[in-house]
Amino acid sequence: MNILDNFINRFQLILPVPTDAIQSVNDDHSKKSAAVLLPIICKPEPTLLFTKRTDNLRLHASQISFPGGAREPNDHSLIETALRESYEEINILPNQVQILGKMQPIKSHSDYLVTPIVGLLSAKASYYKNPAEVAVIFEVPLKHALSLTHHHAIIINDAGNKKRLFFYRYNQYLIWGLTAAIINKLALQLV
């Protein structure tokens, strides 16, 4: 069984463990909900696609992220949100993505409930950055991204509250915050 088949089988067979803080929230109807797409590119050595946001954005400038954003009133679901935002940011057509499923939502620092959507993208699919939002598109080998030995965390004091901040380094990219927390949760879900 190859890496991608193993990932798909494990992802579909293991349900995320709900946390008390998120269990009571209906992620598809939260007022401050958002979704990100975790695009896995189906290559012989599968990769996970990331974006680096432009320096001039009002929020999260220059940060590494997955394509995604806030739910809009016309979005019928968070999957639709993730696909719409992915199209706006990196021109991935919704019909190019095979959705595998949703992970448990994670509350962001800005009080959004962010739902990661895992999807497969053909190696032949074309995508390109929207220069108003995305500075760089890059890929990380899936095996590397899901290896817990590459994941790190520190405890920070945020206005008297101790919080765990995840970070992950790949080549010249420092992936941290919510994006790193999502990768960590996905890796832990597959252990």
From TrEMBL:
It comes from Arsenophonus nasoniae. SUPFAM superfamilies: Nudix (SSF55811). The gene is nudL. NCBIfam families: PRK10707.1 (NF007980). One of its GO terms (molecular function) is coenzyme A diphosphatase activity. PANTHER family: MITOCHONDRIAL COENZYME A DIPHOSPHATASE NUDT8, NUDIX HYDROLASE. InterPro entries: CoAse, NUDIX_hydrolase-like_dom_sf, NUDIX_hydrolase_dom. Its EC number is 3.6.1.-. It comes from the Bacteria. Gene3D superfamilies: Nucleoside Triphosphate Pyrophosphohydrolase. The keyword Transmembrane helix does not apply. CDD domains: NUDIX_CoAse_Nudt7. Residues 31-162 form the Nudix hydrolase domain. Keywords: Hydrolase, Magnesium, Manganese, Metal-binding. It holds the Pfam family NUDIX. This is CoA pyrophosphatase. Its cofactor is Mg(2+); Mn(2+).
